[in-house]
Amino acid sequence: MMQYREIGKTGEYASIIGLGCENLDGKPFGQIKDTIDAALEIGINVFDVFMPGNEIRENISKALGGCRDKVMIQGHIGSTDIRQQYDICRDLPVVKKYFENLLRFFGYIDFGMMFFIDSQEDYQGVFETGFADYVWKLKQQGYIKHIGFSSHNPAMATRVIKTGLPEMMLFSINLAFDLYPAHTNMLSELHQGLNKMAFHGFDPTRAALYTLCEQKGIGITVMKTLGAGKLISVEHTPFDQPLTVAQCMHYALTRPAVASVMLGCQTRAEILDAAKYLDMKDEQRDYSYVMKTLRNDFAGNCVYCGHCQPCPAGIDIASVNKYLDIARLDVKNVPPSVYSHYSGLAHSGKDCIGCGSCERRCPFDVPIINNMAAAAELFQ
Ligand code: SF4
Ligand code: SF4
Fold first, then answer.
1. From the CA of 376, which ligand is nearest?
2. Cis? peptide before 310, omega within 30° of 0
3. CATH T-level topology, domain 4-292
4. Going by CA atoms, what residue is nearest to atom 6 of ligand 2?
5. I need a surface site. Which of 114, 156, 160, 221 has the fewest CB within 10 A?
6. Which residues contact residue 162 at a Cβ distance below 8 angstroms, ignoring those fewer than 6 apart?
Protein backbone atom coordinates (compact mmCIF):
# COMPACT_ATOMS: atom_id res chain seq x y z
CA MET A 1 0.00 0.00 0.00
CA MET A 2 1.20 3.47 -0.83
CA GLN A 3 2.23 5.65 2.08
CA TYR A 4 1.72 9.40 2.26
CA ARG A 5 3.71 12.06 4.05
CA GLU A 6 2.98 15.69 4.69
CA ILE A 7 5.12 18.03 2.61
CA GLY A 8 6.54 20.27 5.31
CA LYS A 9 3.84 22.54 6.71
CA THR A 10 1.88 22.81 3.46
CA GLY A 11 -0.93 20.59 4.71
CA GLU A 12 -0.59 18.55 1.50
CA TYR A 13 0.17 14.85 1.65
CA ALA A 14 2.39 13.36 -1.03
CA SER A 15 2.78 9.72 -1.92
CA ILE A 16 6.30 8.71 -0.87
CA ILE A 17 6.85 7.69 -4.49
CA GLY A 18 6.26 10.47 -6.98
CA LEU A 19 6.67 10.55 -10.73
CA GLY A 20 9.29 12.81 -12.26
CA CYS A 21 7.92 13.04 -15.79
CA GLU A 22 11.14 14.08 -17.56
CA ASN A 23 11.75 10.66 -19.07
CA LEU A 24 8.30 10.67 -20.65
CA ASP A 25 9.30 13.65 -22.79
CA GLY A 26 9.33 12.62 -26.45
CA LYS A 27 7.62 9.27 -25.80
CA PRO A 28 4.47 8.23 -27.67
CA PHE A 29 1.18 9.18 -26.00
CA GLY A 30 0.24 5.50 -25.48
CA GLN A 31 3.34 4.95 -23.36
CA ILE A 32 2.80 8.16 -21.39
CA LYS A 33 -0.82 7.23 -20.71
CA ASP A 34 0.07 3.69 -19.63
CA THR A 35 2.82 4.92 -17.29
CA ILE A 36 0.60 7.59 -15.72
CA ASP A 37 -2.28 5.11 -15.37
CA ALA A 38 0.07 2.72 -13.54
CA ALA A 39 1.20 5.58 -11.30
CA LEU A 40 -2.39 6.47 -10.45
CA GLU A 41 -3.27 2.83 -9.83
CA ILE A 42 -0.56 2.44 -7.18
CA GLY A 43 -1.58 5.71 -5.48
CA ILE A 44 1.05 8.14 -6.79
CA ASN A 45 -0.36 11.63 -6.34
CA VAL A 46 2.57 13.94 -7.08
CA PHE A 47 3.96 14.58 -10.55
CA ASP A 48 6.91 16.76 -11.46
CA VAL A 49 6.49 18.66 -14.70
CA PHE A 50 9.55 20.82 -15.27
CA MET A 51 9.64 20.19 -19.00
CA PRO A 52 8.95 23.33 -21.03
CA GLY A 53 7.71 21.60 -24.19
CA ASN A 54 4.11 22.06 -25.23
CA GLU A 55 3.60 18.49 -26.40
CA ILE A 56 4.76 16.72 -23.24
CA ARG A 57 2.72 19.09 -21.05
CA GLU A 58 -0.35 18.44 -23.14
CA ASN A 59 0.21 14.67 -23.12
CA ILE A 60 0.56 14.54 -19.35
CA SER A 61 -2.54 16.64 -18.89
CA LYS A 62 -4.47 14.43 -21.32
CA ALA A 63 -3.24 11.25 -19.63
CA LEU A 64 -4.35 12.53 -16.22
CA GLY A 65 -7.74 13.44 -17.65
CA GLY A 66 -10.40 13.65 -14.96
CA CYS A 67 -7.84 12.81 -12.26
CA ARG A 68 -6.22 16.25 -12.40
CA ASP A 69 -7.75 17.38 -9.10
CA LYS A 70 -6.83 14.14 -7.34
CA VAL A 71 -3.11 14.70 -7.91
CA MET A 72 -0.57 17.46 -7.28
CA ILE A 73 1.53 19.02 -9.99
CA GLN A 74 4.99 20.30 -9.24
CA GLY A 75 5.24 22.87 -12.04
CA HIS A 76 8.34 24.93 -12.68
CA ILE A 77 8.59 28.67 -13.22
CA GLY A 78 11.54 29.76 -15.34
CA SER A 79 11.95 26.50 -17.24
CA THR A 80 12.00 27.24 -20.96
CA ASP A 81 13.40 25.87 -24.20
CA ILE A 82 14.44 29.11 -25.88
CA ARG A 83 18.12 28.34 -26.54
CA GLN A 84 18.28 24.60 -26.04
CA GLN A 85 16.01 21.76 -25.09
CA TYR A 86 15.93 22.60 -21.38
CA ASP A 87 16.84 26.12 -20.45
CA ILE A 88 16.81 28.34 -17.37
CA CYS A 89 15.20 31.73 -17.90
CA ARG A 90 14.70 34.76 -15.62
CA ASP A 91 13.42 37.12 -18.29
CA LEU A 92 9.94 37.83 -16.93
CA PRO A 93 7.91 38.13 -20.16
CA VAL A 94 9.31 34.78 -21.32
CA VAL A 95 8.93 33.19 -17.89
CA LYS A 96 5.29 34.30 -17.80
CA LYS A 97 4.59 32.99 -21.28
CA TYR A 98 5.85 29.50 -20.39
CA PHE A 99 4.11 29.41 -17.04
CA GLU A 100 0.81 30.59 -18.45
CA ASN A 101 1.11 27.77 -20.95
CA LEU A 102 1.50 25.32 -18.05
CA LEU A 103 -1.59 26.79 -16.40
CA ARG A 104 -3.50 26.32 -19.63
CA PHE A 105 -3.00 22.56 -19.36
CA PHE A 106 -3.39 22.06 -15.61
CA GLY A 107 -5.65 24.95 -14.54
CA TYR A 108 -3.60 25.66 -11.42
CA ILE A 109 -0.31 24.43 -10.08
CA ASP A 110 0.01 22.86 -6.65
CA PHE A 111 3.70 23.60 -6.18
CA GLY A 112 4.99 26.54 -8.17
CA MET A 113 8.70 25.84 -8.31
CA MET A 114 11.24 28.60 -8.84
CA PHE A 115 13.38 26.70 -11.28
CA PHE A 116 17.00 25.71 -10.74
CA ILE A 117 18.60 27.96 -8.12
CA ASP A 118 22.16 26.63 -7.93
CA SER A 119 24.48 29.61 -8.30
CA GLN A 120 24.83 33.19 -7.14
CA GLU A 121 23.68 34.23 -10.60
CA ASP A 122 20.57 32.04 -10.27
CA TYR A 123 19.86 33.55 -6.87
CA GLN A 124 20.14 37.10 -8.16
CA GLY A 125 18.07 36.22 -11.20
CA VAL A 126 15.24 35.12 -8.92
CA PHE A 127 15.44 37.51 -5.98
CA GLU A 128 16.73 40.71 -7.57
CA THR A 129 14.68 40.95 -10.75
CA GLY A 130 11.00 40.82 -9.90
CA PHE A 131 10.89 37.07 -10.55
CA ALA A 132 10.22 36.24 -6.89
CA ASP A 133 7.54 38.97 -6.75
CA TYR A 134 5.86 37.41 -9.76
CA VAL A 135 5.84 34.02 -8.02
CA TRP A 136 4.43 35.58 -4.85
CA LYS A 137 1.65 37.21 -6.87
CA LEU A 138 0.85 33.89 -8.54
CA LYS A 139 0.26 32.50 -5.09
CA GLN A 140 -1.83 35.50 -3.97
CA GLN A 141 -3.96 35.11 -7.08
CA GLY A 142 -4.44 31.38 -6.50
CA TYR A 143 -2.65 30.19 -9.63
CA ILE A 144 -0.22 28.29 -7.46
CA LYS A 145 -1.06 26.80 -4.10
CA HIS A 146 2.42 26.70 -2.62
CA ILE A 147 5.79 28.18 -3.49
CA GLY A 148 8.72 25.85 -3.96
CA PHE A 149 12.05 25.85 -5.73
CA SER A 150 14.53 23.39 -7.15
CA SER A 151 18.24 23.19 -6.50
CA HIS A 152 21.26 20.89 -6.51
CA ASN A 153 23.43 23.13 -4.36
CA PRO A 154 23.06 22.85 -0.56
CA ALA A 155 24.58 26.25 0.26
CA MET A 156 22.34 28.04 -2.22
CA ALA A 157 19.28 26.04 -1.15
CA THR A 158 19.94 27.04 2.46
CA ARG A 159 20.10 30.68 1.40
CA VAL A 160 16.83 30.44 -0.51
CA ILE A 161 15.06 28.83 2.45
CA LYS A 162 16.28 31.60 4.71
CA THR A 163 14.46 34.18 2.56
CA GLY A 164 11.28 32.74 4.08
CA LEU A 165 9.57 32.58 0.67
CA PRO A 166 9.47 28.86 -0.18
CA GLU A 167 7.39 26.22 1.57
CA MET A 168 9.07 23.26 -0.05
CA MET A 169 11.90 22.31 -2.37
CA LEU A 170 12.92 19.76 -4.94
CA PHE A 171 16.49 18.78 -4.14
CA SER A 172 18.92 16.20 -5.53
CA ILE A 173 19.56 13.60 -2.84
CA ASN A 174 21.38 10.31 -2.98
CA LEU A 175 24.12 8.66 -0.96
CA ALA A 176 26.89 9.60 -3.42
CA PHE A 177 25.91 13.27 -3.64
CA ASP A 178 25.75 13.49 0.15
CA LEU A 179 29.38 12.41 0.34
CA TYR A 180 30.64 15.14 -1.97
CA PRO A 181 31.82 18.50 -0.62
CA ALA A 182 29.01 21.07 -0.76
CA HIS A 183 30.68 23.29 -3.38
CA THR A 184 30.85 20.50 -5.99
CA ASN A 185 28.85 21.03 -9.17
CA MET A 186 26.92 17.78 -8.96
CA LEU A 187 25.48 17.86 -12.45
CA SER A 188 28.88 18.09 -14.12
CA GLU A 189 30.19 15.47 -11.70
CA LEU A 190 27.32 13.18 -12.73
CA HIS A 191 28.18 13.81 -16.33
CA GLN A 192 31.86 12.96 -15.86
CA GLY A 193 31.21 9.95 -13.64
CA LEU A 194 30.91 9.79 -9.85
CA ASN A 195 34.25 9.43 -8.15
CA LYS A 196 34.65 7.64 -4.84
CA MET A 197 37.95 9.44 -4.19
CA ALA A 198 36.05 12.70 -3.78
CA PHE A 199 33.98 11.34 -0.89
CA HIS A 200 34.73 12.86 2.52
CA GLY A 201 32.06 11.47 4.80
CA PHE A 202 28.71 13.16 5.07
CA ASP A 203 28.97 16.71 3.88
CA PRO A 204 27.97 18.90 6.82
CA THR A 205 26.29 21.57 4.66
CA ARG A 206 23.99 18.98 3.13
CA ALA A 207 23.19 17.36 6.47
CA ALA A 208 22.50 20.82 7.96
CA LEU A 209 20.20 21.67 5.03
CA TYR A 210 17.99 18.64 5.64
CA THR A 211 17.72 19.33 9.35
CA LEU A 212 17.04 23.02 8.69
CA CYS A 213 14.18 21.96 6.42
CA GLU A 214 12.72 19.74 9.11
CA GLN A 215 13.15 22.50 11.65
CA LYS A 216 11.42 25.12 9.49
CA GLY A 217 8.73 22.84 8.10
CA ILE A 218 10.06 22.95 4.53
CA GLY A 219 9.12 19.71 2.78
CA ILE A 220 11.55 18.07 0.39
CA THR A 221 10.74 16.17 -2.76
CA VAL A 222 13.75 14.39 -4.18
CA MET A 223 15.30 14.26 -7.63
CA LYS A 224 18.35 12.26 -8.76
CA THR A 225 17.45 9.55 -6.26
CA LEU A 226 19.30 7.00 -8.38
CA GLY A 227 22.04 9.44 -9.46
CA ALA A 228 20.73 9.33 -13.04
CA GLY A 229 20.90 5.53 -12.81
CA LYS A 230 24.62 5.49 -11.94
CA LEU A 231 24.15 4.27 -8.39
CA ILE A 232 22.31 1.16 -9.56
CA SER A 233 24.65 0.45 -12.48
CA VAL A 234 27.35 -2.21 -12.18
CA GLU A 235 29.49 -0.23 -14.59
CA HIS A 236 29.02 3.28 -13.19
CA THR A 237 28.47 2.89 -9.46
CA PRO A 238 30.98 4.83 -7.35
CA PHE A 239 30.64 2.16 -4.65
CA ASP A 240 32.12 -1.33 -4.47
CA GLN A 241 28.79 -2.67 -5.64
CA PRO A 242 25.67 -1.04 -7.01
CA LEU A 243 22.74 -0.17 -4.80
CA THR A 244 19.25 -1.36 -5.69
CA VAL A 245 16.45 1.02 -6.63
CA ALA A 246 14.78 0.31 -3.27
CA GLN A 247 17.97 1.05 -1.33
CA CYS A 248 18.40 4.38 -3.14
CA MET A 249 14.77 5.23 -2.41
CA HIS A 250 15.17 4.27 1.22
CA TYR A 251 18.26 6.42 1.59
CA ALA A 252 16.42 9.50 0.34
CA LEU A 253 13.25 8.71 2.28
CA THR A 254 15.18 8.41 5.53
CA ARG A 255 16.66 11.94 5.30
CA PRO A 256 14.95 14.52 7.50
CA ALA A 257 12.07 16.47 5.90
CA VAL A 258 11.84 14.25 2.82
CA ALA A 259 8.26 13.60 1.76
CA SER A 260 8.59 11.95 -1.62
CA VAL A 261 11.11 10.63 -4.13
CA MET A 262 10.31 11.65 -7.69
CA LEU A 263 11.36 8.72 -9.82
CA GLY A 264 11.87 9.09 -13.56
CA CYS A 265 9.94 5.95 -14.52
CA GLN A 266 9.06 5.73 -18.19
CA THR A 267 7.02 2.54 -18.35
CA ARG A 268 4.35 0.72 -16.36
CA ALA A 269 6.91 -1.98 -15.54
CA GLU A 270 9.27 0.58 -14.00
CA ILE A 271 6.45 2.01 -11.88
CA LEU A 272 5.49 -1.46 -10.65
CA ASP A 273 9.13 -2.25 -9.96
CA ALA A 274 9.53 0.91 -7.85
CA ALA A 275 6.31 0.06 -5.99
CA LYS A 276 7.92 -3.16 -4.70
CA TYR A 277 9.68 -0.91 -2.19
CA LEU A 278 6.38 -0.52 -0.36
CA ASP A 279 6.22 -4.20 0.59
CA MET A 280 9.89 -4.83 1.25
CA LYS A 281 11.38 -5.80 4.56
CA ASP A 282 13.88 -3.48 6.25
CA GLU A 283 16.77 -5.79 5.33
CA GLN A 284 15.98 -5.39 1.64
CA ARG A 285 15.99 -1.61 1.91
CA ASP A 286 19.11 -1.39 4.05
CA TYR A 287 21.88 0.58 2.31
CA SER A 288 24.35 0.64 5.20
CA TYR A 289 26.54 -2.15 3.79
CA VAL A 290 27.71 0.21 1.07
CA MET A 291 28.79 2.77 3.62
CA LYS A 292 30.86 0.22 5.45
CA THR A 293 33.03 -0.15 2.34
CA LEU A 294 33.91 3.55 2.44
CA ARG A 295 36.49 5.21 4.62
CA ASN A 296 34.83 5.25 7.98
CA ASP A 297 33.90 8.87 8.45
CA PHE A 298 30.55 7.97 9.92
CA ALA A 299 31.54 6.72 13.36
CA GLY A 300 29.24 7.94 16.10
CA ASN A 301 26.78 9.66 13.77
CA CYS A 302 23.46 8.12 12.92
CA VAL A 303 22.87 7.84 9.19
CA TYR A 304 19.25 6.71 9.71
CA CYS A 305 19.84 3.41 7.93
CA GLY A 306 17.72 1.28 10.26
CA HIS A 307 20.31 -1.50 10.47
CA CYS A 308 19.95 -1.50 14.27
CA GLN A 309 16.38 -2.81 14.14
CA PRO A 310 14.50 -4.67 15.50
CA CYS A 311 14.23 -3.13 18.94
CA PRO A 312 12.46 -5.31 21.53
CA ALA A 313 10.84 -2.16 22.96
CA GLY A 314 9.43 -1.31 19.53
CA ILE A 315 11.39 1.92 19.19
CA ASP A 316 11.97 3.32 15.70
CA ILE A 317 15.57 4.11 16.59
CA ALA A 318 16.48 5.97 13.38
CA SER A 319 13.52 8.32 13.81
CA VAL A 320 14.36 9.03 17.45
CA ASN A 321 17.95 9.77 16.43
CA LYS A 322 16.73 12.00 13.60
CA TYR A 323 14.51 14.12 15.84
CA LEU A 324 17.26 14.26 18.43
CA ASP A 325 19.74 15.54 15.82
CA ILE A 326 17.29 18.25 14.76
CA ALA A 327 16.53 19.25 18.35
CA ARG A 328 20.24 19.45 19.15
CA LEU A 329 20.66 22.12 16.44
CA ASP A 330 19.07 24.53 18.90
CA VAL A 331 17.86 22.86 22.07
CA LYS A 332 16.18 26.01 23.38
CA ASN A 333 14.07 26.46 20.26
CA VAL A 334 12.92 23.02 19.20
CA PRO A 335 10.12 23.57 16.66
CA PRO A 336 6.66 22.35 17.76
CA SER A 337 6.46 20.19 14.63
CA VAL A 338 9.52 18.22 15.78
CA TYR A 339 7.97 17.76 19.23
CA SER A 340 4.80 16.58 17.62
CA HIS A 341 6.59 14.14 15.28
CA TYR A 342 8.50 12.75 18.26
CA SER A 343 5.43 12.39 20.43
CA GLY A 344 3.63 10.74 17.52
CA LEU A 345 6.05 7.80 17.66
CA ALA A 346 4.42 4.68 19.10
CA HIS A 347 7.52 4.08 21.25
CA SER A 348 10.26 6.56 21.99
CA GLY A 349 13.46 7.10 23.93
CA LYS A 350 11.85 6.63 27.36
CA ASP A 351 10.89 3.06 26.42
CA CYS A 352 14.51 1.93 25.94
CA ILE A 353 15.36 -0.97 28.27
CA GLY A 354 19.08 -0.73 27.52
CA CYS A 355 19.38 -4.25 26.11
CA GLY A 356 22.19 -3.12 23.78
CA SER A 357 21.20 -5.35 20.86
CA CYS A 358 20.90 -2.30 18.60
CA GLU A 359 24.40 -1.10 19.43
CA ARG A 360 25.80 -4.49 18.49
CA ARG A 361 24.08 -4.21 15.11
CA CYS A 362 24.87 -0.56 14.36
CA PRO A 363 27.72 -0.42 11.83
CA PHE A 364 28.65 3.12 12.86
CA ASP A 365 29.11 2.83 16.63
CA VAL A 366 26.27 5.20 17.42
CA PRO A 367 25.76 5.47 21.22
CA ILE A 368 22.13 4.48 20.86
CA ILE A 369 21.32 3.84 24.52
CA ASN A 370 22.70 7.28 25.44
CA ASN A 371 20.78 8.84 22.56
CA MET A 372 17.51 7.26 23.69
CA ALA A 373 18.05 8.67 27.17
CA ALA A 374 19.00 12.09 25.76
CA ALA A 375 15.89 12.13 23.57
CA ALA A 376 13.68 11.12 26.49
CA GLU A 377 15.05 14.00 28.53
CA LEU A 378 14.99 16.60 25.78
CA PHE A 379 11.47 15.81 24.61
CA GLN A 380 9.88 15.13 27.98
S1 SF4 B 1 21.77 3.91 15.03
FE2 SF4 B 1 23.24 3.00 13.63
S3 SF4 B 1 22.16 1.31 12.65
FE4 SF4 B 1 20.63 2.55 13.67
S5 SF4 B 1 19.88 3.92 12.08
FE6 SF4 B 1 21.55 4.99 13.14
S7 SF4 B 1 23.40 4.51 11.99
FE8 SF4 B 1 21.83 3.04 11.33
S1 SF4 C 1 19.05 -0.73 23.75
FE2 SF4 C 1 17.10 0.36 23.79
S3 SF4 C 1 16.87 1.13 21.74
FE4 SF4 C 1 18.44 -0.45 21.65
S5 SF4 C 1 17.34 -2.30 21.05
FE6 SF4 C 1 17.48 -2.27 23.28
S7 SF4 C 1 15.59 -1.28 23.93
FE8 SF4 C 1 15.81 -0.84 21.76
1. 2
2. yes
3. TIM Barrel (3.20.20)
4. 355
5. 156
6. none
